[in-house]
Amino acid sequence: MAKVKNVQLGREMEYPYEGARPERQIAYVFDTNKCIACQTCSVACKTTWTSGKGQEQVFYNNVETKPYGFYPQQWDVKLLNLLGGGSWQGERYEGKTIFEAAEGSERAQGYLPEQAEYASPNLGEDVVAGSVEKGAFFQGIHQVWQFYLARICNHCTYPGCLAACPRKAIYKRPEDGIVLVDQSRCRGYRECVKACPYKKVFYNMVTRVSEKCIGCFPLIEKGEQPQCVKTCIGKIRLQGFLSRPGEERADNPLDYLVRIRKVALPLYPQYGTEPNVYYIPPVHVPRDFLGQMFGPGVEEAISTYRSAATDQQLLAALLLFGNTSRILHGFRADKTEAVGFDAEQKEVVRVPYTEPFFKRDFFDQKRKVYRLNVT
Ligand code: SF4
Ligand code: SF4
Q: Nearest ligand to the C-alpha of residue 213?
């Protein structure tokens, strides 16, 4: 195995191939605090890409309620158990990644889910952690918790799926880091399904080959954000590109949120694939649970997130979520508005820091009707 630098683990790690970071890496920030589990993203993706035969139980995008929702069932718990424990020494991970824990001729540690484990994607939905005592009532502080975790392929820097494929049918595009399956080369061995720690490659029983999220590359190539991002009702998502480590630009919203302000964190970085969907952690969830899921930066990320009310630059970056279909390559915090720019540095969106407020007269003289104002 080769030695590659995993920036999320703060160390080098073993990987079957030499590292080859793309020029720019497709990346996403998801704000878990804003997701309402409406599943619009899941449906938008499904109707676009997976409405064919053999795809009935395939969701390239799914939203599960943590801690008890899973798709497929128990996916993260199973792999965490297989890997055993590990610990963080500051920002350095001391423990085995899926590649370092591989045994024998395997390229990555993993497991192959049974077909039935995909059958109930909403099992555990809205089930909370903890129990409510008899007679308890709402006092303004949550006694129990849960949160919604939206999940897609992470277009990992070191993909487990790609590492495990004996046919070299999976590749990572050098121009944007999107990970794709070449279905003409695939023979349906399912090594990728077994090796993807996020279980985001799927085996199609009808076509008998593997398939996965394609990052909506036809849209990306036109400068448009993917379907799941554009349609998100809660405006929790922003898609863009991360620069290579050490080449970050403060005016690139992805670089700024992920690498400069570190307000968004990778999902299970300890798996070692360097995933590229970054999550702003939920502020109300116990920190030990979040630490296992998002690594050591949770406390700092939440405190930075909370500072957005008085930090105009951060507020500007956060306000760009869900307000344009164009991919943003730059942004600026103006006096009263956040401004976003496309690849040609053309202004494509302006969002005010404060929503305009219009107060109407209680009685409209012209139309002779009463108006209610809702604040
Ligand atoms: S999330 Fe899974 S399918 Fe997607 S690139 Fe990573 S290992 Fe491959
Ligand atoms: S569309 Fe947005 S808010 Fe609705 S479930 Fe998906 S990620 Fe959450």
A: 1
